[in-house]
Amino acid sequence: MVETVKAKDFSNGNSPTWCPGCGDYGVLSAIQRGLAKLNVQPENAVLVSGIGCSGKIGHYFGGYSIHTTHGRTLPTALGIKSSRPELTVIAAGGDGDGYGIGVGHLVHAARRNLPVTYIVMDNSVYGNTKGQTSPTSPLGYESSTSPTGNLDQPINPLLLAWSSGASFIGQGFSGDIKHLEELVIRGIQHDGFSLINVFSPCVVFNKAQGYDFYKQNITYQEQPAASAPELVSLLSENPFNVGVLWEKKTSGSRYKGKQVVESDVISYLKSNII
Amino acid sequence: MKSIALFGLTGQGIETAGEILSKLIESLGYTHRNWRDFSTIIRGGNTSFEIYISDQYESDSPPRLETIDMAVVWTDEGVNRYLPRLKDHSMIFGPENVKDIPVAHQGKPPKLGFNVWALGIITGYLGISFEKVKVEIEHKFKKGKNTELFEAGYQLGLTVACENPLQDLSVENATISGNDALCLGAIAGDVRYYYGYPITPASEILENFSKWLPPLGGAVFQVEDEIAAIHAALGCSYAGKRTFVATSGPGLALMTEGLGYAAATEIPLVLVDNQRGGPSTGMPTKTEQSDLFHLMNAGHGEFARILLTPTSVLDCIVTIQEALNLSEYYQCPVIIALDLDLALRRISIPWAKIENAIRSIEIDRGPTILNETMTGTYKRYESVGGLPPQRTVPGVKGGAYVASGDEHDERGFMEPDFKQVRGSLHIRRLNKANSIHYKRPFSRVGNQEAPITIIGTGAMGELIENFVMENGAIYQGLLVRQLAPLPKQELQEALKHSKRVVVAEYNAKAQIRTILEAALTDKEVHSLLRFDGEHFTDQEFEQEIAAILDGFTSNLTN
């Protein structure tokens, strides 16, 4: 008899130390529920997390988990997924982790199109270090590192990922767990790299972009963009569109279970050097 | 022993001619070593190729020889470089406009075609069958003009045919570099996945694996930088598959981030550093052994590591297999340091020797749990009886845990009681490789009771071995392979008859000597240092040793 996996099977009993009201609770919950719905066995799921408040997510996850260095979730996920393609691999980190220090890896993970679901908990602030400006902080954002207002254009992560060849782009809100859970499921089911940017409020250090702000600003999109121009206008005109915004059928199968054609290793090596 | 040099300009196909020559000699079964003036290939300008051939197939490949039996040169610069090194000053060949070439040894090769003409002279001199060479040349170059040039060269070579022409020894030889050797050993050690970023002199590893791993069911990724490479390798290792990373100085600087992470999370990691001239971009195509201080200490905070230095090309095959086993047992970074010369050196040796080295080590996954189901509460970082903890991999039921670079408790959870874990888990992690079970901390050559010991490793190994074998009973050679943890007692035992020690190394700060210091306290220690990027020839090395020991050795013989 196959036991049905439940969301609580993806809990490990360790209590989160996030602040009350932190958006990351919703993200953890959506991941746990999504994996359970897909009936993934906990031992076959790996959550790769980065550094920052969001990076703690792996410590509360009931499957396997690897809490990496700052910004390195995607290379680590590459190592896991490429060598163990049968595992479900989710990378998760914050906007500083993924769009600041680790942004170079995002470009290449998108190009490589390895079936890894990358969830970014975007709160537009460095919360763990107590409120500095982040790569997605809006222009004029006032913080300890931009006391007269942020002068740098915020990054548009979804367009960046798209221009790097990402085959699945979604956006969600941790205040709507049901919707987010569906996004996570769609991302995992996608046979290629998927980026899901999640508005995950920091209620302590970024009060301007709290739950109410997102509730007022997000717009649900029922269908992914049908064309590149449509996506570009969706993402540039309203950065708060949520849903699956881009989905291109691809096959990540070039990384799945390579055929062993040479079984006699020594003879094979010999044939390669003589 | 025979030694031949070919000198020309980049773009003249000097390298190609060298490859053909090496292949021909390999097919006859002669052990040999190739050397090329690598730097000029990048810069443009002069380039040279040297080959040293051993008369006896039993012997190891010869070191870089000073004395040259014959040289074929394109310019006066070639004469300047090789005339002083020729055993017989008439044995130089070249175009008629080049100075100091005996009239009988002159020819009229065109600029493009000089290499084929030279190949003719060399193979004629060596007595390799005309037809055999012709087939190779016609396979590689267009027939017609090239064939004529080859024939002209061959006739010239016959006029000075050597006394012991090469014959078919019926020995199956293979030509490999240190990098090739690492790849062969790694595959034998079950490495099927590789993540790399191109860098001289480690790119060859990435290139080899790109060809060799897919048919074995593996995969290779050229990633965006060395930070990605080491983290991908750590992901792969966390997932229970074997891999390693290889780089050189500038890449090592980036990988240092992952090194400390591997130590904190106790994920097995093997890191190969092919050292080149530093600091910074330094001398990318020149050899040095100057990263050792960095490798001993790289990374913030404090953690255990193992540092091994292979002593020959063949030794690379064995050492990387040992390193993979050690890393899974001790669950700490195991670093293998080569130097550029050892990494890129190409030697031709009997395949049987290579196969022996490939088969010499059994795969041992240590306390890795790959298939069982765990019962009870599994604690990833719990040590029982002082042994390394059991390590599960994804897929193992009941074995899920979090590997975290944040300080953690025995289950892996961050934000623990620091006072408690720093006194227990951290101390265990810090001291776990204070002494290791390793059977080959060094190799000894020559007289084990000799009054003088010459110590070195990597590229220096062949020179020390050759010197000790040539210079008799007053010398012992000690090729050190384990630099960390220091095999102090074993070294002291091996050195107990030696009053004097020379530590020969390619750096300016005597790094190997400093690392070994605790084992050398009662010795008179001398340093032989070189840091201009060049590898000694046999004679240069002998002269340096003689200068250092001047007086002392004559007292011994009187």
Ordered list of secondary-structure elements with their pairings:
The complex is a heterodimer of chains A (274) and B (558).
Chain A lengths: L23 H14 L7 E5 L14 E4 L5 H11 L4 E7 H7 L1 H10 L4 E6 L2 E2 L5 E2 L23 H7 L4 E6 L3 H13 L4 E6 L11 H7 L1 E2 L7 H10 L3 E7 L17 H9 L1
Parallel strand pairs in A: 1-2, 1-3, 3-4, 4-8, 7-8, 9-10
Antiparallel strand pairs in A: 5-6, 7-10
Helix pairs in contact in A: 1-6, 3-4
Chain B lengths: L1 E8 L4 H15 L3 E5 L2 H5 L2 E8 L16 E4 L2 H7 L9 E4 L10 E2 L6 H13 L3 H11 L4 H14 L14 E5 H11 L4 E4 L6 H10 L6 E4 L3 H13 L6 E3 L1 H17 L3 E9 L5 E5 L4 H6 L8 E3 L4 H18 L2 E7 H5 L1 E5 H9 L8 E2 L21 E2 L9 E3 L13 H6 L1 H7 L10 E5 L5 E5 L3 H12 L3 E6 L1 E3 L3 H7 L5 E6 L5 H6 L7 E6 L8 H11 L3 H6 L1
Describe this structure in words.
- The complex is a heterodimer of chains A (274) and B (558).
- With 274 residues, chain A is an alpha/beta fold.
- Chain A has helices spanning 24-37, 73-83, 95-101, 103-112, 157-163, 177-189, 211-217, 228-237, 265-273; strands at residues 45-49, 64-67, 88-94, 117-122, 125-126, 132-133, 168-173, 194-199, 219-220, 241-247.
- In chain A, the strands form two sheets. An eight-stranded mixed beta sheet of chain A has the order 2-1-3-4-8-7-10-9, sandwiched between helices.
- The longest helix of chain A has 14 residues, at 24-37.
- Chain A is globular.
- The mean pLDDT of chain A is 95.
- The mean pLDDT of chain B is 95.
- Chain B has 21 helices and 24 strands.
- With 558 residues, chain B is α/β, with parallel strands linked by helices.
- The two termini of chain B are 32 Å apart.
- Chain B folds into three domains: 2-158, Pyruvate-ferredoxin oxidoreductase, PFOR, domain III (Pyruvate-ferredoxin Oxidoreductase, domain 3), CATH 3.40.920; 175-359, Thiamin diphosphate (ThDP)-binding fold, Pyr/PP domains (Rossmann fold), CATH 3.40.50.970; 442-557, Rossmann fold, CATH 3.40.50.
- Chains A and B meet through β1, β2, α2, α4 and α9 of A and β7, α7, α9, α10 and α14 of B.
- β2 of chain A pairs parallel with β18 (402-404) of chain B, so a sheet runs across the interface.
